[in-house]
Design a protein that fits this description.
By secondary structure, the chain is an alpha+beta fold. Among the domains are: about 55 residues, Orthogonal Bundle (DNA polymerase, domain 1), CATH 1.10.150; about 100 residues, DNA polymerase, Y-family, little finger domain (Dna Ligase, domain 1), CATH 3.30.1490.100. Helix content is about 35%, strand content about 25%. It is built from 14 helices and 17 strands. The strands form four sheets. A five-stranded mixed sheet has the order 5-6-1-7-8. Strand 10 and strand 11 form a beta hairpin. The structure holds magnesium ion (MG). Magnesium ion binds next to strand 1. One of its GO terms (biological process) is error-prone translesion synthesis. It catalyses: DNA(n) + a 2'-deoxyribonucleoside 5'-triphosphate = DNA(n+1) + diphosphate. Its main location: cytoplasm.
């Protein structure tokens, strides 16, 4: 383990809720809850104001509504969050080639590998500058932890929240960890926590005191050994780049073009099974199923479908791949087929996204897009998801505050405006249409192209 605090952990503060507050002036300083609003919805993120009512991530939405009945309840806008995440990740990659995203708003950075920091002073400066840059580019705050290992850097950023920076100096780790609850350590969930508690172990120091043999006896060899090392603040896990782009896929090229449609279908099923075996082998599941088809004339098509939640079920992947194949013309022959799964889930927050997005898919059919989108299906009744942006021919840009009974209530305001006024329209008002989100910082959209109020942030899948 290194002896300088040059591993950085960034965690944006209440990310989804903060984005919504930045884009909606009337919600600043108010309780905002983002998540699935359907009957089985869960909270993805609550603003700090909502946390004072006891509303936290992963809580059932019904419980949140009981605790904070007057909060603003919004469905997530993943396209917007993703575009802001990309701005943040780009700033991290200026610090080091070793950036390991854990979710849209959280990542490790190895500052030493990037030559950005080599001791405590330079690490502190890099962390402070990063926080200022994030604020300038996105208008949002993020908290930074700096330590000599990933485990401690993450603990430090937790202590820094909100809007702070904490350095854990090498040599002080064990004294700091000792009194903390066992759940602080990575890999200790509720079940392991209970098991340790029944053995009389509540704090990290008590793990260290129990000794490695006792830990192995309680938790098995691999887990016991790893946890004992963590309790002694030994964490050698390196920062690994490009975790976010992971996908699992398999493909086959055929010597002779396949013309038989039934045979093409069977090949796709076989590839789907192979892909799932590989996915399971890596202990992963994923939400987006991708089919790749190269035709006789070398034209290559990809089609994808995003499921309600991550899966590693071969039947589900086979069915999705078959549906995607239905939309591809293979007359003339096929020379290559591939099946892949992306949108991989190997950390908790992604599961929350999936659940929230699943509820969103109920309300907004465009979330379940197949790609490329050729034509948006005609929707008999127009949907106005709470929190989504709209434009009115007469009143300009605003967002949906609520809808129902054939009416939609819109608040007309933009990130740079004063809190705006509310107006109610008929849900089929011809002057009202869905709009793309505006940049949170004037001129802050990618590329720095236009001036204040320039075009919308490029966002996929919104509308
Ligand atoms: Mg966060």
């Amino acid at each position: 383990m290194r002896n300088t605090p040059t591993i950085l952990h960034l965690d944006m503060d209440a990310f989804f809720a903060s984005v919504e507050q930045a884009s909606k002036p009337s919600l600043r300083g108010k309780a905002v809850i983002v998540g699935g609003l359907g009957p089985r919805g869960v909270v993805s993120t609550s603003s700090y104001e909502a946390r004072t009512f006891g509303v936290y991530s992963a809580m059932p939405m019904a419980q949140a509504r009981r605790l904070a009945p007057n909060a603003a309840y919004l469905v997530p806008r993943f396209g917007l969050y993703r575009s802001i995440s990309e701005q943040v990740m780009a700033l991290l990659r200026e610090l080091s080639p070793l950036v390991e995203p854990l979710s849209l708003d959280e990542a490790f950075v190895d500052l030493e590998a990037g030559g950005t920091a080599w001791d405590e002073g330079s690490a502190r400066l890099a962390g402070a500058k990063l926080r200022a840059d994030i604020r300038a580019v996105t208008g949002l705050t993020g908290s930074v932890g700096l330590a000599a290992s990933k485990m401690l850097a993450k603990i430090a950023s937790e202590q820094a929240k909100p809007d702070g920076l904490v350095v854990i100096e090498p040599g002080t780790e064990r004294a700091l960890l000792g009194p903390m609850p066992v759940r602080t350590l990575p890999g200790v969930g509720p079940a392991t926590g209970d098991q340790l508690r029944r053995a009389g172990i509540a704090t990290v120091e008590e793990i260290a005191e129990a000794g490695e043999d006792e830990l192995v006896r309680l938790l098995g060899k691999a887990h016991g050994h790893a946890l004992y090392a963590m309790a002694l603040a030994h964490d050698e896990r390196p920062v690994v780049a490009e975790r976010e782009t992971k996908s699992v896929s398999v493909e086959d090229t055929y010597d002779v073009d396949i013309h038989d449609r039934v045979r093409v279908g069977l090949e796709v099923q076989r590839l789907a099974d192979r892909c799932v075996r590989r996915l399971r082998g890596a202990g992963l599941s994923g939400r987006t199923i991708v089919l790749k088809v190269r035709r006789y004339d070398f034209s290559t098509l990809t089609r994808s479908e995003t499921l309600r939640g991550p899966t590693d079920d071969p039947a589900v992947v086979r069915e999705a791949a078959a549906r995607l194949l239905d939309s591809v013309d293979t007359t003339g022959g096929v020379r290559l087929l591939g099946v892949g799964v992306s949108g991989l889930a190997d950390y908790t927050q992604e599961d929350l996204f999936a659940q929230a997005a699943g509820d969103l898919a109920d309300a907004a059919p465009e979330e379940a897009v197949a790609e490329p989108v050729e034509e948006r299906p005609a929707v008999a009744e127009r949907h106005w998801p709470a929190g989504h942006d709209v434009r009115h021919a007469e009143h300009g840009h605003g967002w949906v505050q609520g809808s129902g009974l054939g009416r939609v209530t819109v608040r007309f305001e933009t990130p740079g405006s004063e809190p705006g006024r509310v107006r109610t329209f008929r849900a089929d008002d011809p002057g009202l249409e869905p709009a793309d989100p505006l940049p949170l910082v004037p001129g802050g959209a990618e590329g720095g192209g236009g001036g204040p109020g320039a075009g919308p942030v490029a966002v996929r899948g919104s509308g």
